[in-house]
Input
Amino acid sequence: MKNKDSYKEIEKIKNEYQKQRKSFILLVITLFTVISIYAIIRNMNPDLVIVILIIVFSCIASYGFKLGLFYSVKTGLIYKEKIVNKVLKENFKTIEYNPWEGIEKKEIDATNMINMGTNFHSRDLIKGNFNNYDFVFSEVWIYNKKMRENIEEIETLFKGQWFIIDLKDRKVSNVQICDKIFFNTAMDSIFNSPNYNKVELEDIEFNSKFNVYAQSTLDAFKVLTPDMMLKIKQLKSKFECELLLCFIDNKLHIGINNHKDIFEFDDDKIEKKYIEEKIINEMNNIKNFIENLDI
Output
């Protein structure tokens, strides 16, 4: 019942926002019309009219921005804290969800797997256990921010989901599996670690999709059994995006570079069935992979 109330609450806020938005647009049209007519009647200096219009437009734009921001923040809070949190806890046992925290930058940086760029953002932290494997998950955005001719440019290096699975006492040496169409792996840069070697496996299809780097060729073959390579190919097929995997310090990192935020609020689809299926399907893909791990 509580979940249904949350959907109704968001719908109510959305309707109120749309009414305010229509009133706001009408106010803008009215003000510009009145100022224009007044300027014509009074035969005002065109330069003065432009200055007045700029000042009025700036004030109106500021109000409009605040109106949209308030709507976005308010609905986002309800969506994540009441709906997403409830769906996760109802469908996955032993899960903790914090929408405002994320995986720390140093944890991903320590893999030496991906160029970390100038900026790092992480949120929607989930901690849980699948099939006796402890894991953490969050949305991650890694990018370069730079100025070119006084214009700020954003170059996204990675945007998607990042999992870290604790393999406990299963000793796994450092092995990296990098999607061939992902161009921001550290191993492909001039600063790559000399301790890693590129490994070719017997699976031709797997070799065509991924580059494999390892500190020990033997360890790469131990980890990437035919069964494990099949599971990784299936995982890539399900997500239909660039995939990164790294075995390091008895942990498995999985990066899903789909340029999506799976917990992002979409006010065009405030439907209980759509939202719950979206969250559950995304989590189930990785849950099934973890449950079938054989390391």
Remarks:
- The helical segments are 2-41, 46-91, 105-109, 204-209, 217-223, 226-239, 272-291.
- The chain is about 45% helix and 25% strand.
- Residues 75 and 199 are 48 Å apart (CA to CA).
- Residues 2-91 form one domain.
